[in-house]
Design goal:
The chain has a domain of about 50 residues. The chain is flat. It is mainly α. Helix content is about 45%, strand content about 0%.
């Protein structure tokens, strides 16, 4: 029996994904760096250039926080079989 409290897979919550269950082309390295930097405060304006190490570090810390929260929510809201 499928639970209505299931947390979606990580693939279903990838930024910019609108099609569920279909294979998608993974983001390029540059796109992924900019996604992580966005979590660290990088705005990505035309004149900003590429993100720096501090912004990437902050973004990685936020990504780690999100992963920890995601695991906790999944454990809290997954019903036992």
């Amino acid at each position: 029996m499928e639970s209505r409290h299931r947390v979606p897979d990580a693939q279903a919550v990838t930024p910019g994904s609108s099609t569920r269950g279909q294979a998608q082309k993974p983001p390029s390295l540059r796109e992924m760096i900019r996604m992580i930097a966005g979590l660290g405060g990088f705005l990505g304006r035309k004149s900003d250039g590429e993100p720096g190490t501090q912004t990437l570090w902050r973004g990685l810390q936020r990504a780690d926080d999100i992963a920890i929260a995601f695991r906790g929510f999944r454990e809290a809201y997954t019903l036992p079989d």
